[in-house]
Amino acid sequence: MTLPPALAADDDATEVLKVPDFRRLWAANGFGYAASEVAGFALPVTALLLLHARPLVMSLIFVCSRAGFLTVGLPAGVWIDRWRKKPVMVWADVAYAVAFGSIPVAYFLDVLTVAQLIVVALVVSMAGVFFEVAHSSVLPYVLPRRRVADGNARLQTSQTTIQAVSPSVAGVVTQSIAAPVLYCFVGLCHLMSLLLVRRIHPSGDVARDRATPERRFRREIADGMGVLFSQPLLRLLLNQAALNNIGAGIILAMLPVFLLNEIGISTWMFGLLSTLGALAGFAASLLAPRLRRRFGEIRMTLIFSALAPFAVVAAPLAGVFRGVAVPLIARRVRASAALPG
Q1: In the chain, what are the helix, strand and coil shares in percent, each to the nearest 5?
Q2: How many helices (DSSP H) and strands (DSSP E) are in the chain?
Q3: What distance in Å separates the CA atoms of residue 162 and residue 35, rounded to the nearest whole number?
Q4: What is the pLDDT, as a whole number, of residue 142?
Q5: Of 207, 224, 255, 256, nearest in space to 49 by CA
Q6: Burial of residue 267, with CB atoms counted within 10 A of its CB: 0-12 exposed, 13-18 middle, 19 or more buried
Q7: Which residues 6+ apart lie within 8 Å of 31 measured at CB?
Q8: Distance between CA atoms of 85 and 63, rounded to whole angstroms?
Q9: What is the pLDDT of residue 154?
Q10: Cα–Cα distance between 181 and 174 in angstroms, integer?
Q11: How many CB atoms lie within 10 A of CB 82?
């Protein structure tokens, strides 16, 4: 990889936001994060309150929204390693904008269906895999090598801030407009992201090994899987993360059904609870490094995994004690934010 002279001259003295390409990438990510949070809020509200989707259908939508990494996660990493990263991000933003933009169009034409939401969730999931992998790969091409961690920190701070604000704002807005209209904002955000990404000129971002045979492609995937499963600690962490994610997936798929249909909370309160979850996650991210340094990463993983059932119990209790349903759900959100992912 060849760095631009301005970046190669003094890696340690470079302030990441003073690098034009990173500044554009940072702004593009801001629009993308805002779009993701608003879309994540609007989807269950649209499906449940407008289209009256059943719990089984909500589960299907959730599965489709996560299908990308499960189906093309491994080959996408190998493909993008050979491709230029910038065009991948541009085309992913195009897919985002078209998929999300189709929802308000269908709503205004009175032809919006649950089936369309399922297709949109699947398309967005696939586009998300390619965007995320390409985004992670392009960062070393726009920043000095020693400042990549600082760049990631800037991006993470922006993401946390937007996660804390967007759901509540979206919840308040849906008191006046229909949830599908929010996707106009989502599509516009991805168009802005697309324009910013197009102005990035990552040095050294070139395609490689276009003529690589299929056998080598399969070998690279097999090698990656072999490393993962041959290491006992990695295998243990993989199993632990898989079990946690299965449980979290069940909760995330059914929580909107439980809150919006069973408990009957308002959309603004639904957005506020999402904001509490983001703030709790931010607080946990500040506390976790200190606990990890003091007690050890494996020990803390075991402790918080053991606490997970107690955090989850608060949610079904909200259905029994409806007078304090919102505090119970908020308690579950705050507690689960500290759990390992």
Answers
A1: 85, 0, 15
A2: 13, 0
A3: 10
A4: 82
A5: 256
A6: buried
A7: 189, 190, 192, 193, 196
A8: 27
A9: 82
A10: 9
A11: 13
Residue 265, SS3? Answer: coil
Residue 179 gets which letter from DSSP? G
d(CA 310, CA 122): 33
List the one residue out of 28, 304, 12 whose CA is nearest residue 191: 28
Torsion-angle region of 152 (φ positive above 0: left; ψ -120 to 50: alpha; else: beta)? alpha
Q: Which amino acid would we find at residue 159?
A: Q
Residue 80 and residue 137 in contact, taking contact as beta carbons nearer than 8 Å: yes
From the list 156, 159, 175, 157, the residue with the least C-alpha distance to 272 is 175
Pair 186, 35: CB distance under 8 Å: yes
pLDDT along the chain (341 residues), means of 10: 43 68 90 91 90 90 86 78 87 94 95 94 92 85 80 82 84 87 94 92 68 59 69 75 75 82 83 78 72 77 75 73 70 50 44
